[in-house]
Model the fold of this input.
Amino acid sequence: MRTIRVFTALAAAGLLALTGCGDGGGATGGSGPGGIKPPKIDKLASLGAGEGQVNVVAWAGYVENGSTDPKVDWVSGFEKETGCKVNVKVAGTSDEMVTLMKTGDYDVVSASGDASLRLIYGGEVAPVNTDLVANYKDVFDGLKLKQWNSVDGVSYGIPHGRGANVLMYRTDKVTPAPTSWSAVFDANSPYKGKVTAYDSPIYIADAALYLMKHQPDLGIKNPYALDEKQFAAAVDLLKKQNEQIGEYWSDYTKEVQAFKSGNSVVGTAWQVIVNLAKADGAPVEAILPEEGATGWSDTWMISAKAKHPNCGYLWMNHIIDPEANAAVAEWFGEAPANKLSCAKTADKNHCATFHAADEAYFDKVWFWSTPVEQCLDGRTDVKCKDYSAWTQAWTTIKG
Done:
């Protein structure tokens, strides 16, 4: 079974809460909320000899050396080729990643959008000299210089991969086949008690995205930038949805079993969950609904205090090497960052399944971002609800 991260969103405030802004395809970098500039940190000018090791903070499944599965190993070859021993610390949350990077004990991190800009604005990571990363030229353009991995056109990381939160449904129970998130938000749903949703405050953005299309008078332009009125509407929608929910999920294995048993018949999921459910015999399909969806994109970033910067750069180049990136994308269950990886996957349909080269598909995806008081949609005449408010509301929504 593929290893997969279970995202845990976090609450934070002020500068420490700054994160990347999803924008339905991702705009290029800017100064960030409130015009805040990151600290001045020089990028590595040239690549020198490796220091013998590299300390990595990563999501489970991103740094595999054969210990989990002997057939899954893209670390041993790197160590032999470069002389850089890989020491990995697996982190369970973005919060843990940020804390670990602040210690200065780690050289690189596989940061998600709910951590990357916090690391940039906190001065914990340095700009990346992409000229020193040979494989960067083959990364999909749709992943380069986005708001979660760059500022003012300066790259702060190497894209790793991406994925969308899709709508999964049982084909034998949900008819006709859904085309909209109305399948989970309709107050009169015929699937009451069989609807499932992702158990995290960040799920409020899914409701906001739905309202963007179905209540345009609310004026929502970014599902992570909600003023008081917009936020209240999203919370109200989720409270009504709660009456339809059979269970919320955060453990992907439990969602697979719920769909297999029929305890859940429709709800939000990841493509890898769909694949696993099908492999287990569940009659399921999934779509990217007409409203679009939320999603994630991860970035390899180098510490501003890296003790092994050369090995760090060698690792960042290796992990987006076509073969390594193909291997991790298949193991984890996501679209690879390197466009040449699609020819290297064991499953020749992998990139088609995960829409790796389909920019029109990802143009409909709002990548996870942590809300802050300075509205991420650029408004300055109002204050938006920050993540602490989202966290408090989520407790109320559920109970």
